[in-house]
Amino acid sequence: MSSGDLALDGGAPVRTTPFPTVNNASGRTLGAEELEALRRVIASGQLNSTIGGETRALEREFADYYSVAHAVASTSGTAALHLAVAAVNPEPGDEIITTPITDAGTVLPILMQNAVPVFADVDPVTGNLDVESVRARITSRTRAIMVVHLFGSPAPVASLRALADEHGLMLIEDCAQAYLTRCPDGRLAGTVGHIGCFSLQQSKHITAGDGGLCITDDAALARRMRLFADKGWPRDTDERTHLFLSVNYRMTELQAAVARAQLPKLAGVVADRRAGAERLSKALAPLAGITPPPDHGGMSYWQYPIIIDPDQAGGTCHDYAKALAAEGIPANGGYLTRPVYRTPVLAERQTYGTSGYPLCVPPAREVPSYDEGICPVAESLIAKRLLVIAWNERYTAADVDDIATAITKVHRAFTA
Ligand SMILES: *Cc1c(COP(=O)(O)O)cnc(C)c1O
């Protein structure tokens, strides 16, 4: 058996030792600084953010980091996005346009606030929202656009902001995968829309286990988000009162202390991810039917996405993912099992009891279609074309070279 034989067919795998991973300490930047931060909070006896100073300090530091006026902390990225939708304050049945290729955390908050998610299609190479598709989905009921910078690749937010302004809509940026992502015009992702939302979940560039942050320059939006995360309780007054329907999404002081220790490490994490990605993109350039992520220097590589042209590359993204996994490479075909609109919560309207609310008339303008075929580009990416390589700041040049070797090996076998 030659060393060129695929591991899938019984050949020797390219790689037999594990890669650094976000699932344990091998691929995280957690260390002495975070331990000291936790010790400090425990010693203070102040674990709640309405009493201690860590969460307020994190908010100040994160706002300064992004050169914006306000940051509001919460319990998760999903919670941060919920804060943003709550700040939009849609009428029941109002519509928010978003992307079908994202974590459910982008879409569930729209439903939680009784608004209707409307899905626009995506760009065939980046998987990010397509501006013309968004434009075509705007109706008299549209209130906001929720855009995702997928895998850390900058979405066309300058154009989306212009479109939003033209129609009096809010633009919310989901930056859960996009810390320090830079747009082609030099602005940071999260600062172009009205609100930017970030996640501190285990798998993101920096983590506190879970946690969320919203940024905005708008004081009124910041205040509404802060109230929504704290039972509508205006703690800047003496009154124990509750101004509107809200939840408790308060970050704990333990989370905030860890996040404060993580923040100074963020720039290094992104720089190291970029250096590794640049090396891989160079190595993949000669392979027909394999398109590395387009990058003008602003991508932050939450993952490393590759577009596979099955006709030229000799297999689908799923064929590649299976063969690469056998070679010892952490790869995933399609990212999602299905577009978000095909998950039961939407496709079967599993919302409040058996009502289907708000995906019914009233309050909706019409019962939204979440049928197969509404976003054909997104569907073909998930079914055939989107290959995702797990990425990490701790990858060495040798790690990256193993990934390149394995992809080249699989490509050679598939196109032989
Ligand atoms: C992770 C993620 C979320 C949700 O964040 P959680 O902290 O897991 O709630 C939302 N949107 C995107 C694009 C994500 O990657």
Describe the structure.
InterPro entries: DegT/StrS_aminotransferase, PyrdxlP-dep_Trfase, PyrdxlP-dep_Trfase_major, PyrdxlP-dep_Trfase_small. This is dTDP-4-amino-4,6-dideoxygalactose transaminase. With 416 residues, the protein is an alpha/beta fold. It has a domain at 32-265: Aspartate Aminotransferase, domain 2 (3-Layer(aba) Sandwich), CATH 3.40.640. Helix content is 35%, strand content 12%. The protein is built from 14 helices and 11 strands. The protein has helices at residues 32-44, 54-65, 77-88, 108-112, 131-137, 157-167, 219-228, 253-262, 266-284, 310-313, 317-326, 344-347, 376-385, 397-415; strands at residues 70-74, 95-98, 116-119, 142-148, 170-174, 195-199, 212-216, 290-291, 303-308, 331-333, 386-390. The chain has a 7-stranded mixed beta sheet with strand order 1-7-6-5-4-2-3, sandwiched between helices. It has a 4-stranded antiparallel beta sheet with strand order 8-9-11-10. β4 (142-148), α6 (157-167) and β5 form a beta-alpha-beta unit. α1 (32-44) runs antiparallel to α8 and α9 (266-284) packs parallel to α14 (397-415). It is globular, with a radius of gyration of 22 Å. The chain starts with 31 loop residues before the first helix and ends with a helix. The mean pLDDT is 97. The structure holds pyridoxal-5'-phosphate. Pyridoxal-5'-phosphate binds next to α3.
CATH architecture of the domain at 32-265: 3-Layer(aba) Sandwich
Highest-level CATH class of the domain at 32-265 = Alpha Beta
The helix content, as a percent range, equals 25-40%
CATH topology (fold) name of the domain at 32-265: Aspartate Aminotransferase, domain 2
Q: Give the names of the bound compounds.
A: pyridoxal-5'-phosphate
Distance between the termini: 17 Å
The total count of helices amounts to 14
What does the average pLDDT come to? 97
Structural class: alpha/beta
Could you give the count of β-strands?
A: 11
Main β-sheet description: 7 strands, mixed
Give the low-pLDDT segments.
none
Apparent shape: globular
CATH superfamily of the domain at 32-265, please?
A: Type I PLP-dependent aspartate aminotransferase-like (Major domain)
Which value, in Å, is the CA radius of gyration? 22 Å
Order of helices and strands: HHEHEHEHEHEEEHHHEEHHEHHEH
Strand share of the residues?
A: 5-15%
- Order of strands across the widest beta sheet? 1-7-6-5-4-2-3
